[in-house]
Give the backbone structure.
Amino acid sequence: MRYPGTWLYVPGDRPDRMSKAMVSGAEVVVLDLQDAVAMSRKQQARATVAEFLTAAEPAPWAPRIHVRVNNVHTETGRRDLDAVAGLPALAGIRLPRVEAPADIESAIRVVGTGGAGAGFHCLIETAAGVENAYRIAAIPGVAAISLGEGDLRAELRALDEQALEWTRSRIVVAAAAAQLPPPAMAVFGNIKDAAGLRESCERGRRLGMRGRAAIHPAQLPIIAEAFAPTAAEVEQARRIVTEADAHAGGFALDDGTFVDQPVVAAARLTLEWAERYQPSSARGRDHE
């Protein structure tokens, strides 16, 4: 089963876990060369990831593969980019601690224009990065932006994730302004707290975020369900789109909801998002 809107992180020095991740149902598997790998094992992990990417065979059911490299301003990060850029199975390069457009430009200089074809996914993990979010998102070659909340919370001395709601909204706005997809949420660190994960996902969804990274396969179905439109949302969106086809301008539904073009556009997006979650999209999660 495929779980849309999910990214599963796997240590880059664990080929056994990589193989399992490919059949976990994650939409994207992220081979991690950064935080999940000890400094003494960086070279080994780099070689392992490059070998895995070289051997990976494309298939309709297979998840896309991203690689999170080390900081591009370090020799380790530059070697990571050299090792993986341009490999056919690579669908995305995740850049950590992006603070300014110069960070992306540095990565492009390392991989060249051909190697950047996979697209850069920028992790904004510092206050400076948040302040430059739109400038980062607008750089050609950037495919997505998202928060790295662990480092950011430490820098901001934020006591819990609710303190980051304004920052999450800031990233959502920056992505939309740059015409990028809605940002995915950062990992939820407690793999045993299913209720906390669900609640956190639903808060992010209300802010406009879509999907989430995971550190354990057990988190994938919870994330996918939390971000799927509810049965009531799908039904309302269908009513809006159906009625819109019969009206030239604004109108009101029987329940009093006024509908104009922005509302119709939002309804169409809801239906598109729900389509990704078939057959489980029209479920009864209507308590939001």
User: Anything to note?
Assistant: The mean pLDDT is 90. Residues 3-226 form a domain with the TIM Barrel fold (CATH 3.20.20.60). Residues 230 and 285 are 5 Å apart (CA to CA).
